[in-house]
Design goal:
Blueprint (H helix, E strand, L loop, with lengths): L7 H12 L3 H14 L4 E7 L5 E6 L6 H4 L29 H8 L1 E7 L4 E6 H6 L8 E4 L3 E7 L6 H9 L1 H18 L3 E8 L2 E8 L4 H9 L1 H4 L2 E8 L2 E8 L13 E5 L2 E2 L3 H14 L7 E7 L4 E2 L10 E2 L2 H17 L12
Parallel strand pairs: 1-7, 11-13
Antiparallel strand pairs: 1-2, 2-6, 3-4, 3-6, 4-5, 7-8, 9-10, 10-13, 11-12, 14-15
The chain binds adenosine-5'-diphosphate and magnesium ion.
Adenosine-5'-diphosphate binds next to helix 2 and helix 4.
Protein name: ATP-binding mismatch repair protein
Family: Belongs to the DNA mismatch repair MutL/HexB family.
Amino acid sequence: MGIKSIDDNSVTLLTSGQVVTGIDSAIKELLENALDSGASAIDVVLENYGRDGVSVKDNGCGIVKSDLLNIAQRHATSKIDSFNDLNNIHTLGFRGEALASLCALSHVFLTTSADGMEGYELDLNLNLKNLGDDSHFKRLAAPKGTLVRFEDLFHNLPVRRKDFEKNSAREFTKVVALLQEYAMLNPVRLSLEHFLKNKRQRTLQCQGTQLIQRIACIYGAKRTKTLLKVDLKLSSGELSGYISKRDFGMGDAATVCQLLAINNRPVKQTSIVKTIVEVYKQYNLTETPFFVLNLTLDPSSYDVNVTPDKRVVLLHDEYNILNEIRDAITRVFKSEDHVVPRSDPP
Ligand code: ADP
Ligand code: MG
């Protein structure tokens, strides 16, 4: 066959399919953009499980017209200039490929205003084709912030489209879980509405300046009574949040929320989760803890660019961090005022 370069179109499909793996990862990317824009309110709307469209609206900084010319081009970002900036990254995004990938796999429309007066509406797919041309921008009055809407996800990846249509109800539960995670980790007002056959169902509404308020929004006030506050200094950073009191663990390890974030980015860091659960098991043999914990670390002490979804983080000093977390969590349970006998949550 000989060695030759794959054509650009195919490369785009190959790489986009790894960034946008399902409707949940598409929504995750838009949510992260909204959070990076400094929004205090984010509204997500799904039509028929997202099969007919998804929109994410924020009241963040919006996008100025000159930037709209570059938006959705692959690896175009306002968040880093070069690779070294990752040593001091404070945004959730930085790879500049989410919108480009979404455009490659669906039809994307964007409405934005950076000042709350002058706004623009554009078809992002056209944006890609007409480099440097703003003839498809529609000027309109719009509130400050950005709305991104995508339709026909995976229209050009038949296997994935079929899979999505077949499993859209199951995928929807992943979307709800994802929104719950981001709602707990961020002091913003976040809502999810679902329209099923034109019938409106609100599925999530969460806000609160304190983490405990947001946990109450999602899991109920009763749950918060079963939790211990964690606020620990480590030599490398801080660990803060809430974890089940030792007598109030949960039964079902498969469904309990064990949310770990590093600098407010939800991560899949099984080594840390395992360590926390192991310590908990020393105090409660039969149950597993609910927890929402954020590890604050210097961004130069880990590499977040391991997978396109940035959910896996490589810690430079994992061994020591694990030891410190083990000791710190042990201290939390040792100091727990252990007077409440096992009963229903107080
Ligand atoms: P990244 O988030 O990695 O920069 P994206 O493709 O997700 O890449 O977004 C590209 C750029 O578009 C961002 O860097 C940002 O400047 C802009 N952008 C995207 N979504 C929003 C939004 N909701 N509000 C403001 N700017 C946005
Ligand atoms: Mg992004």
